[in-house]
Amino acid sequence: MLPLCLRRLFQSFCVLVLAWGSANSALAEEIELIGRVSLPGTTRDLSGLKGTVAKKYPRDLFGGISAIDYTGSGNRYLLLADRGPLDGAVSYPCRFHEVEIEIDPDKSPAITTRLLKTHLLKDIDGRSISGAAAKSDGPLPPLVERMDPEGIRCSPDHKLYISDEYGPAIYEVTEHGVVCGEMQIPGHFRIAVPHADADQEASLNSQGRQPNKGFEGLALTPDGRYLVAIAQAPLIQDSTPTGKGRKRKGQFSRLFVLDLKTGQNQQWAYPLTETKNGISEILAISPTEFLVLERDGDGGNEAHFKAVTHVDASEATDVSAISQLPHEGLPQGVKPVKVQPWLNLLDERFGLKGPQMPEKFEGLTFGPTLPDGRRTLVVAVDNDFETDVPTELFVFAIPTSKLHIAGR
């Protein structure tokens, strides 16, 4: 038998080994930021456009990234630009880009990018689609006169779907950028009188999406069957005025779910973590599980909420028949989707919090699986086409235990 002192030393060693193993096991289950890349705000795209808009912004300026999606092929992604500089005050041709993003945690840098192609969005007659809000004066435009592209998803059979904030609308688009179809959207998402001036638009409408708060996020389930769009904020009729200009307050944003096989649709209610937050993106894990990018409208030291939540819709009530949701609470028996904290972008361990914290986290997509089995998650930042602000991409490694967590 070992002497008492040796037995105690051995026991202490075993405790340390177990503690070390436990700590490393817990660490392995954490989401890790494995890299980031910044593209200068002066970057030009491959559209071939010449000249400037507003006498300042090159027509081939790369930026304003509102969405990102992995094509499932190699390292190829699609990055979608929104309506252009100056919030739709100028005529900017809408577009999306094909970009190669190589992710290798064992290299330095871990993330590299290369712009491959730029596709200008056009209607079926070959006319360029503009992001100018001024085109909204008068009756709703035909397919498609103007667009504020905010979400993009690529189907397993290579169809593209783009969500538009102006409508709101969801369009089917070819790989080369031709808008070839439009999904049927329930009337209570639409406004009756669109207007280029947001304040006037707000005063002229009593239902539908709030100004510049339409279908900000778009998801396609992995089987390619369901499209899920989410409004950036509660609809006009689902909210109440705050007394500050056109600002409104409501607890629930609506998710619109379209079955591409049957054409049937339903809606779910998403409870905002804070009513002053907005929704930037939604990403499907399964037909009933999603990740949602929810954030405040502040950057730098003022930022206090930048997060990805986990959504379980398996028990959510279809609220399609409820034309007006209460701005607080839901009717008895009506269940919203379940929302849990999932990824806090302000977590100190990621080193993003502080003066350089981006304001507009806008895009969210899964990327390839790493050799160790973890899934990559790419988060894109919108720079609003400001040439002194970079477009940034952040890549996280996600343990499999952090996905498919419904029922836990």
Cα distance spanning the termini: 47 Å
CATH architecture: 5 Propeller
How many strands, what sense, and barrel or not for the largest sheet? 4 strands, antiparallel
CATH class: Mainly Beta
Kindly state the percentage of residues in helix.
Answer: under 10%
Note the total helix count: 2
Largest sheet, spatial ordering of strands: 1-24-23-22
Query: How much of the residues is beta strand, in percent?
Result: 35-45%
Class by SSE composition: mainly beta
Count of domains = 1
The residue-averaged pLDDT reads 91
Could you tell me the CATH topology label: Tachylectin-2, Chain A
Shape: globular
Outline the low-pLDDT stretches: 13-27
Rg (C-alpha, Å): 23 Å
| Quantity of strands, as a count | 24
SSE string, helices as H and strands as E: HEEEEEEEEEEEHEEEEEEEEEEEEE
InterPro entries: Phytase-like_dom (IPR027372)
Signal peptide: 1-28
Protein name: Phytase-like domain-containing protein
Pfam families: Phytase-like
